[in-house]
Amino acid sequence: MFTAHVVVTVLAAAWVAFSAVSVFARAAWVVEPLAEYGVPQALWPWLGAAKTAGALGLVAGLFVPAIGLAAGIGLVVYFTGAVATVLRARSYKHVPFPLLYLAPVVVAMALA
Q1: Which candidate, 59, 56, 108, 105, places its Cα nearest to that of 82?
Q2: What is the C-alpha separation between 111 and 93, in angstroms, rounded?
Q3: CB 4 within 8 A of CB 111
Q4: Domain residues of the chain, as ranges?
Q5: d(C-alpha 13, C-alpha 104), whole Å
Q6: 28: which residues sit within 8 A by CB, 6+ positions away?
Q7: What is the pTM of this model?
Q8: Which H/E stretch holds residue 103?
Q9: Would you give per-residue pLDDT tens digits along the chain (112 residues)?
Q10: DSSP string of 11-80?
């Protein structure tokens, strides 16, 4: 079970880190929906920083479980907020995207 936890946690952290890099790089497929949802451009670097901290925290949690738990909780709150933002913008076709990032984080926490 420990091996599964490590693999899922590393993959979840990599997936969240990819999302953070996409925000920092201002990939069109990320920032265009953010603008469409009404998320102010001034917040985008903070969103990327939150994802980066969460990804690093998940990996650190393999060595210090309390850090991983805190990072996991933070990411769950972050991506739940992302789902709420998408729903508030009535962009229902985009709801699965934040869920694709939320799911591996939840699984990693469940395996911890």
Answers
A1: 105
A2: 30
A3: yes
A4: 2-111
A5: 9
A6: none
A7: 0.92
A8: helix 96-111
A9: 789 999 999 999 999 999 999 999 999 999 999 999 999 999 999 999 999 999 999 999 999 999 999 999 999 999 999 999 999 999 999 999 999 999 999 999 999 8
A10: HHHHHHHHHHHHHHTT-HHHHHHHHHHT--GGGHHHHHHHHHHHHHHHHHTTTSHHHHHHHHHHHHHHHH
**Average pLDDT taken over every residue of the chain:** 95
CA 97 to chain CA centroid, nearest Å: 10
Report pLDDT for 1. 76
Neighbours of 54 (CB within 10 A): 27
> Under DSSP, is residue 6 helix (H, G, I), strand (E, B) or coil?
helix
Question: Tokens 């934040």 correspond to what residue?
Answer: 98
